[in-house]
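JOB MANIFEST
job_type = single_chain_structure
chain_count = 1
residues = 294
[input]
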Amino acid sequence: MSKKLGPEMFDKKASFAGIKICVDPINRKRTEKSDNVMAMFYEEQPFMWEFVKNEIKKVIHECKGEVDFLDVGTGSGVWSILAAKNTKAKNILAIDKSQRAVEWAKKNARENKVSFLVRNEFYNISSAPYESCKVIGIYAPYHLYPKEIEMNIPQHARGGVDGQQVFKEQLITANYHLSKGGIIVFNQMCLGRKGKPEFTRYIPNFVEKASLEYTNIFPPIKTKDFLNKVYDGKLKKYVEEISKKYPELYYCDGVIKKDGKGRIKEVRHEINLRGRTWEDRIRLHREIGRHGIK
């Protein structure tokens, strides 16, 4: 197999698309349960940027709105820095509930010689005015785990038992903030069934009169196979229950556009995966999951 290129889970620095930032290795020791980790992986931020960058540039140029880019859960500041360096975005708002993330985003912005507003807050209705945002970036946590170990899972991975709770909450709030003709760009691992990730079913209910276009970064995998590898055959009851309800697991990037058309379309990508596969995601989630099982 060819050597994998791009950020990996134990890296402390990452560079792509003209930016250089400090990040966390996924195994960074947390000081408390609410502490966050700001890691980076090629199949997440760099891949997603390649998939959505042209649409972001187009919407920032053509759409009306006070905020060019709203960066929800900015972490290391990577998406705000990408927007500032590679588009003509002038009004960028980055928010994160972690004070440590806010400080890192500011530091990485200075290192890349860009400037944007960073606020320490939970994403909520008052984060921005109604229909004011041209582009909203959402990268909510999606790790899968039973309820009884939830508080042991690192905060950056705590997305609810089905991995979709935080994503759904953020979509509902983003619907309020999104300008007419604006877009939401997202990265999400999602349970699914009958050949479709579940977000194809609930996004039309959460974002009014919106169209959805998404791509499978990797081909879908069996939920049971993924979780058995992540938890090394443990948590059998949880694995059986959730696999029966949602036998398929998807890893996707998507664009939601408030265009009034309500279309849903899966598209194939031609982006070089640089040797990355589901096995890389399994190793990552195994590292996350080990915090939960004592």
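[summary]
Helices lie at 45-62, 78-86, 99-111, 165-177, 199-206, 223-230, 236-245, 278-289.
The first helix runs from residue 45 to 62.
exit_status = 0
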